[in-house]
Amino acid sequence: MRQGRTTQCYWRRRNYLTGPGGAGVTVSEATAQMFDPNDPNRPVKAFLQEYQTLFGFGPEAITNATVQHDDVSAGNGARTVVWQQQVAGVPVFDAPLIGHYPMIFFLSQGFLCRVVVTRI
Q1: What is the pLDDT along the chain (120 residues), one digit of tens a residue?
Q2: Which member of 3, 65, 109, 120 lies 3.0 to 4.6 Å from 83 by CB, making a disulfide possible if both were Cys?
Q3: How far apart are CA 11 and CA 115, in angstroms?
Q4: How many CB atoms lie within 10 A of CB 41?
Q5: Is the four-CA dihedral 36, 41, 47, 48 of positive or negative sign?
């Protein structure tokens, strides 16, 4: 077992982490407004900004990261984005940050379903 590595998953049992446009539920409107409304990753960035004291980093973690996967499920239209975390420009082995967006209707409205964070 690797020391110092934790994976945490954040979601709500009912509903989503954010409302339309990445605001509401767990993210304040003021925080969501800090990001471009046309940015498809606005909900994840707003969530990371709102809880950066919990994670130890904010939206810069994905702004400066490499996208490993950005897929939309053919079955239900859900979108998953996987970012490769980096420290000082060096990729962190086996430490993805994952954003899950719900079905295509909700995706187009900017809802966030779940965030998975691996911290070292």
Answers
A1: 445 567 777 777 678 888 888 999 999 999 999 999 999 899 999 999 999 998 888 999 898 789 999 998 888 778 889 999 888 888 888 888 888 887 655 555 778 877 877 765
A2: 65
A3: 7
A4: 22
A5: negative
**What's the start-to-end Cα distance of the chain, in Å?**
13
d(Cα 5, Cα 40) in Å, to the nearest integer? 29
Output the six-digit token pair for 34.
Answer: 């800090």
Residue spans per domain, the chain: 6-119
* Centroid of chain to Cα 28: 15
Side chain identity at residue 39, one-letter code: D
7, 98 Cβ separation under 8 angstroms: no
Give the number of other Cβ atoms within 10 Å of residue 43's Cβ. Answer: 29
Give the sign of the dihedral formed by CA 19, CA 65, CA 63, CA 58: positive
SS3 49: helix
